[in-house]
Amino acid sequence: MEEATINLASRWKRLGGSLIDAIIELVILFPVMIATGIWEKSLRVEGLTLSQQAVYFAISLAVFLALNGYLLHAKGQTIGKTVVKTKIVDLNGNLLPFGKLIVLRYLIPWLIAAIPIVGGLFVVVNMLFIFGAERRCVHDYIAGTRVINA
Question: Which of 9, 46, 98, 100 is geometrically suited to a Cys-Cys bond with 73, CB 3.0 to 4.6 A?
């Protein structure tokens, strides 16, 4: 276990990789949000309908997979993780099957995060778990993953 602890990615590297991924997606999705009117509707008091949220979620997922799908499948990395030289592995240090990785580590947490009130609390708790000794977020526990230096 000591060797695994030494190989764990630092919290700063994990944050850096996440920020890089978020910025890349934002650069792509923001113009889509403006062009479709989602941005303007989300700023109004009434907000987006459930169907509009579902469409935006599907678009976001498609963009995420287009950007990162191959890297996640082949190397256990997103673009941000590639830049900061980290990767996602299971607890034995192996790459996860692509479907399991996407559903457990990304899709389920994103769906939970979309639930009003509960989702916001989940997002905060998910992030705070990084400060544990294992440096694993809640989504890592759900998927049985950890992030190590590549």
Answer: 98
